DNA sequence: TTCCGACAGTGGGGTCGCAAT
DNA sequence: ATTGCGACCCCACTATCGGAA
């Protein structure tokens, strides 16, 4: 059988994009995977799910501009492309950006137009074929003749689908079952769905739930084997060196073979949380950590135990994992928690958490095992929600399925002194297709002032009700503040711009 | 037949490190 | 010294498909 080349992936990707049915997408990918050589399976799975074996190679939209003309004959092998991407990633030091650009040029010169299109979307991180990890799990299962649940389980434990998929294709279900939690290698973290309030969250979980403080910090997964500690983020990147406080806390535990899940956060001396920006800055700074921990110390709160004393706990229910956590970690390092089925008790807990300045509450089903991905809504987060009536100052043309529609709105609050509007951020969220069509027409009619290729400025007449999580300090916007996670609730045709909320009322929410 | 869980897509603000200017 | 880019922290919401009910 002919060797699978890059052009075959590009064609498969085009077929996947052309069919909207998920089963058809899975069929196209599985067909290709069944033909790929074992030594190139990992590359094929990575590319077709929008990832690179190198993860990141330091190439973004800017480096991908002004690409050379394609060649006519497709011949590029997956191994050759993979080698080139590794060389691109390896560039560093002075001259590296020019060298990367040169190698990217070499890469694109060596492939056809269809391959260029595929590589461009792949490297830009926008495959837009309607298939990523979720579809690829099913495709791997189909091509390897293994149950999707086994693929999913191995993915949770290994955290990297191309490796799991390659193992399934060569070794079948036995190879999948050989994946275990490995201390020092991060597992895919369990994520939460959301609910508007505590009663809704309790109902989603079937009545009884463990409620925990939701801290606005950085998710951490801590692994300890003997005196060796490693700490990983939600995307499985290692940050051990940036969080010495966490390392020391884990080393002080009485158990030396342990994997914990939790959150690091910078707290003020009075125990209230610093703004998220402070925690994020502290955790990402790699220079002078010793001095930073004096000025901005980190606290850690664990909420789950994946392994204690050499025993894996992932498949146990939450209540048992938490009991194991409580036995091996001192109480002051455990996220405060209340088990209840009483909505009133739950709402009082929520109110108290918010009063203390924290982000909200995560409700957890006591029966749920630790699982990333599709195994139901075991965790549900609840956060308070603010709303404002703001004025649309401009709108940006959308991309992809929003092409040709005005999508992203510039939002302004009224300045009572000047009578002008002060921009507080943008949002594209909460808009239905119907609303997108309507606002495109409406804003083109309101167009006014200097518009460019992307931004259409409009007369400040439309009032829109916006929900958001909070107000943060901004170095970018003129008022010095910006909305966090803004989304549209509805337009307010009954309101005039003079009725919109003022910058002063927004400033009151900034602390 | 209808309902609902899971996915993919569409982008948001902020900060860092690094290389180029 | 400043600016631009890439990467990665945090993330909400809608449309769609297809299995569950």
Automatic annotation (TrEMBL):
UniProt xrefs under Pfam families: DNA_ligase_A_C (PF04679), DNA_ligase_A_M (PF01068), DNA_ligase_A_N (PF04675)
Class of this enzyme: ligase
GO molecular function: DNA ligase (ATP) activity
Domain ATP-dependent DNA ligase family profile: 291-415
Requisite cofactors: Mg(2+)
Alphabetical UniProt keywords: ATP-binding, Cell cycle, Cell division, DNA damage, DNA recombination, DNA repair, DNA replication, Ligase, Magnesium, Metal-binding, Nucleotide-binding
Top-rank taxon, per record: Bacteria
Catalytic activity: ATP + (deoxyribonucleotide)n-3'-hydroxyl + 5'-phospho-(deoxyribonucleotide)m = (deoxyribonucleotide)n+m + AMP + diphosphate
SUPFAM superfamilies documented for this protein: ATP-dependent DNA ligase DNA-binding domain, DNA ligase/mRNA capping enzyme, catalytic domain, Nucleic acid-binding proteins
EC nos: 6.5.1.1
Entries under InterPro entries matching the protein: ATP-dep_DNA_ligase (IPR050191), DNA_ligae_ATP-dep_bac/arc (IPR022865), DNA_ligase_ATP-dep (IPR000977), DNA_ligase_ATP-dep_C (IPR012309), DNA_ligase_ATP-dep_cent (IPR012310), DNA_ligase_ATP-dep_CS (IPR016059), DNA_ligase_ATP-dep_N (IPR012308), DNA_ligase_N_sf (IPR036599)
Transmembrane segments: none
Protein residues bound to ATP: 212, 219, 234, 263, 303, 375, 381
Alphabetized CDD domains for the sequence: Adenylation_DNA_ligase_Arch_LigB, OBF_DNA_ligase_Arch_LigB
Signal peptide coordinates: none
Residues at the catalytic site: 214 (n6-amp-lysine intermediate)
Family to which this protein belongs: Belongs to the ATP-dependent DNA ligase family.
Function: DNA ligase that seals nicks in double-stranded DNA during DNA replication, DNA recombination and DNA repair.
Protein name: Probable DNA ligase
Name of encoding gene: lig
